[in-house]
Amino acid sequence: MPSVTPRSRFALYLDLIRWDRPAGWLVCLWPTLSALWIAADGFPGWHLLVVFVLGTILMRSAGCCVNDVADRDFDKHVKRTAQRPVTTGAVGVKEALALGAVLALLAFGLVLTTNTAAIAWSVPAVLVAIAYPFTKRIIAMPQAVLGIAFNFGIVIAFAAVQGSVPAVAWWMWLGNLFWVLAYDTEYAMVDRDDDLRIGIKTSAITLGRLDVAAIVVFYLLFLSIWVMALDGYALGAIFYVALAVALAQVLWHFTLIRTRSREGCFKAFRVNHWLGATVFAGIAGSYLLRWLGVTG
Description:
By secondary structure, the protein is an all-alpha fold. The protein is built from 15 helices and no strands. It has helices at 9-16, 23-40, 46-70, 72-75, 85-88, 93-111, 116-135, 143-162, 167-190, 192-198, 203-207, 211-229, 237-257, 262-270, 272-291. It is globular and about 55 Å long. The chain starts with 8 loop residues before the first helix and ends in a 5-residue tail after the last helix. The relative contact order is 0.12. Residues 1-5 have low confidence and may be disordered.
C-alpha cells in the first residue's frame, strides 16, 4: 500500500477557518465597508480600511473555530460537514479553541489602534459571536443571532470614525439583519433534512413552506431600509443604479431557490457576497464621483 503523508497542521488550520471559502467573510465585509464610507463621508483612510478588512477576516475565522467545536457532534451526521477537521478529530477541541482565541486576540489588537468607543463595542461583538453556535439548540431562528454578530461591524465602524453610534448606523444594522436572515436561510435550506433528523433548529425549518417567500421579503426589507436610512446622504444616481442591479440579483436568487434543491440553495448562498459588493460599489462610487466633482 502507498504511504500516506499526514496533512500539515497549517493545511488543517486553513480548512478549519474555511480559507478556501471566502464568501463567509465577504458577506461580513461589504456592509462593514459601506458603514465606514457613510460614517467617514467618503474614503475612511488606509488605517481604518486595513483594520476592518483584516479584522473581519480574523473574526470570521475565529468564529469558524468556535462553531466547529460547538457543532462537532452534529456535523458528523451532515454530509456537507462530516469531514471538517474538528469533526473528524484531525484537529482537537482545545487546539481549535486555542487557534480561535489567537485569531480573536489579533483582531482585538487591531481594534486597539482605533478609539475607546470602538474598543467598547468590540466586547459584546465577541460575546455574541461565541454564543451564536449554541443558540441552534434553543432558538427557532438562530440566524437572527448570527445577524446580530455579523452586524457589529457596522456599529464598530461608526464608533471608530465618529466616536459614537448615530441613528443611521442602527437603521443600517436593522436592514443588514434582514440580509443575514435571507442568505443564512438559503444556507440552512441546504441541510434542512439533516437538521430535522438530528434536532438542530434553523430558520429554514421554522419557516417551512414559507421559506422562499420569506427570503425574498428579507432581501427587499434589507434594500428598502438602507434606501430610507441613506436617503439624506444624497448618494446620487450611481447608488440607485447599484440598487437596481441588487434587485436583479434578488430575482436571480429566487430562481435558484424556488425548487429548494440543495445545489440551487447552496449556490445562492455562495454568491450572496456579490449583492453586498454591488451595494457597497454604489455607495463608494457615489462618494468617488462627488470627490471628482461629478454630479448626479
